[in-house]
């Protein structure tokens, strides 16, 4: 497969060794319980720990944890992190945004680099 064209509307979709499409996804997810007080960091840390244990590339910032991988793997990590809080009996809110871009990988860092390059040229 050729390198993906950032400006193309459609990309060739890579497949794994079983012929299953590899649907690369970058997710921004925030998972937190309701009704536990003003400080959520301890609970958020429990969810982030599950995401980090998934082995998928991830990074946590002030508002979200970004995760990258095949769509099924990303959704499983989000589900498992959500269940970590929900199984303790907490009402749990999940904010999730997905950027699904077949043919691309490494976007968790490449997107930021691309924006920095554009800004540097200005």
List keywords for this structure.
single chain, alpha+beta, four-stranded antiparallel sheet, 3 helices, globular, Thiamine-binding protein domain-containing protein, MTH1187/YkoF-like, UPF0045_domain, Thiamine_BP
Task: Describe, in plain words, how this protein is organized in 3D.
Belongs to the UPF0045 family. It comes from Bifidobacterium animalis subsp. lactis (strain AD011). One of its GO terms (cellular component) is cytosol. The chain has 122 residues and is of the alpha+beta class. The protein has a single domain, classed as Alpha-Beta Plaits (2-Layer Sandwich). Helices cover 36% and strands 23% of the residues. Strands 2-3-1-4 form a four-stranded antiparallel beta sheet. The chain is globular and about 50 Å long. The relative contact order is 0.23. The mean pLDDT is 93.
Structural class: alpha+beta
List low-pLDDT spans.
none
Instruction: Give the domain tally.
Output: 1
What is the helical fraction, as a range of percent?
A: 25-40%
The strand count comes to: 4
Distance between the termini: 33 Å
Proper CATH architecture: 2-Layer Sandwich
What's the helix-strand series?
A: EHEEHEH
Cα shape: globular
Biggest sheet: strand arrangement = 2-3-1-4
Protein name: Thiamine-binding protein domain-containing protein
Family: Belongs to the UPF0045 family.
Short description:
The protein is built from three helices and four strands.
């Amino acid at each position: 497969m050729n390198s993906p064209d950032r400006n193309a509307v459609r990309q060739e979709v890579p497949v794994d060794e079983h012929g299953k499409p590899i649907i690369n996804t970058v997710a921004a997810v925030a998972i937190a319980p309701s009704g536990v007080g003003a400080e959520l960091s301890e609970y958020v840390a429990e969810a982030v720990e599950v995401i980090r244990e998934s082995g998928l590339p991830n990074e946590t910032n002030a508002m979200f944890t970004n995760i990258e991988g095949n769509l099924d793997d990303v959704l499983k990590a989000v589900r498992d992190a959500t269940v970590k809080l929900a199984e303790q009996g907490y009402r749990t809110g999940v904010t999730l945004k997905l950027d699904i871009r077949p043919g691309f990988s490494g976007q968790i860092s490449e997107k930021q680099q691309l924006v920095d390059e554009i800004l540097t040229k200005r």
